[in-house]
Amino acid sequence: MPFVRPDVANLLAMLASAPGPKMEEGSPDAARAMMLAMKNLTERPRGDLAHVRDFTIPSPHGHAIPARVYSAVAAPVPGPVVVYFHGGGWVIGDLDTHDSLCAEIARVLGLTVVSVDYRLAPEHRFPAAAEDALTAMRWLATTPRAIGHDITGLIPAGDSAGGNLAAVVTQQLHGELPVPVVAQWLIYPGVDMTATEGSMTEFGEGHLLTSAGMVWFMGHYMGSEPDLAHAYASPLHAASLAGLPPAMVFTCGLDPLRDQGRAYAAKLIAAGVDVSFLEATGQIHGCFTLRAAIPSTQADLHACLAALKLLVGETVAPALAEAAE
User: Fold this and answer.
1) pTM (whole model) above 0.90
2) CATH number for the segment(s) 6-16+23-317
């Protein structure tokens, strides 16, 4: 039997005893309400920050993309910006479900964080989420003063489906923007929609995210799209990852998506990309927004942030030094 942390075991036991249907047995609207309600019970409060503001990003597809900017300082100076894409299987989740997490990232890193919402399925199927993520990155690269300071680099980040989007925008936009993508942070990312074996079945029941849940998510998002290996769907299947910016990849030992994250980190390393890889033993998918229910997660998050800070420093420092000469 795999090791399960005591605080993880307590949460899983509580969820197993809760009445009602499973997420994949209900509607997307019911699942969205369930995620918000769970957040209020299992996530830490936002805490104090100098600056939090909602705004929108215009889209060429005729809608406004909701976003929220976080800063730990009242007068931020030019610097890298973390662009965060929330998880939720491309079907659930929003700015509020990941509000506390984004605030903690801004507080610990000392960097501005921009949390980006995106159109959800099944109302907006593939590739709507990827299109919104790409649009947000391009807009931030060309409209930096909208967040209150100049941007010296972009750091795509996200968990689960958001990790998928962070990987997609990094692959598609690295080297194409007026502001460089200096690092990427992939948190238990879904990067291979063709995966059906390994951790997908080993942890497919009883560990919060289930294999049936993944089928439900992908069915709503992908619809009748025949190519699950499409570049916007399964970034693991890219022909090459050479030349991409440094990556911080975080996986969980009890996660159906664990093997995908491992494989993506390995492929980055094989391509010569600087990678910091962390795996949390005895931990489950979605833990970064369950920090009140799983207190040990806070240390996992801070370990990721410490590793990311080193990656960003190694990438940005030489450029800053060159600019100062």
Assistant:
1) yes
2) 3.40.50.1820
